[in-house]
Input
Amino acid sequence: MVFYKTGGYYHPSIPVGLRAIQQLGRDNGFRVDTTNAAPRFRLDTLRKYKAVVFLSTTQEVLNPAQQSAFEQYIRLGRGFVGVHAATDTEYDWPWYNGLVGAYFNGHPAIQQATVQVTDNVHASTSFLPARWVRTDEWYNFQRLAPDLRILATLDETTYTGGTHSPGTHPIAWYHTYEGGRAFYTAGGHTDDSFREPLFLRHLLGGITYAMGE
Output
């Protein structure tokens, strides 16, 4: 299930992203449902899905009962995928901070930068070049979870506006969390992201990881 509710900024790339993920499902044999309706966060509804994708959600999107249902869902061993502004979501829900892995902490202008792939085994990165040059809106982060398995970092010498210490700017990661699986990629601000074959394959790898496949 792809969830795209926004309580703050609405990314114009969301419709393009929805279509792209639906196409990934058709091409790879899994069903994709899309919704911006928070009432779908009931355990009896969520448990029908192997994974839930937060596609550029922003600010407050779930009430306490819906949050509780989602926590129970992850504890059943299911998966979560966060795309781009999923880290700009639910700042007052510590459990979610642990799941998504970090919170947004600003960004510079859209520009080209070099992504350094640090894990060449994971399904989301095994096919990528060691230095992956692409254009996007590059997030800085705060409140990073300590258990993240970093998949790729940003080379801050290749663009302007990074705020992390040299070599420590994560841009994609995964981890297990309270019995479930979580994957996050900071890419996906632009429409063109969802037309890039490498980015789509990266996203597909994260989704299949989250689904446990």
User: Anything to note?
Assistant: The chain is about 25% helix and 25% strand.
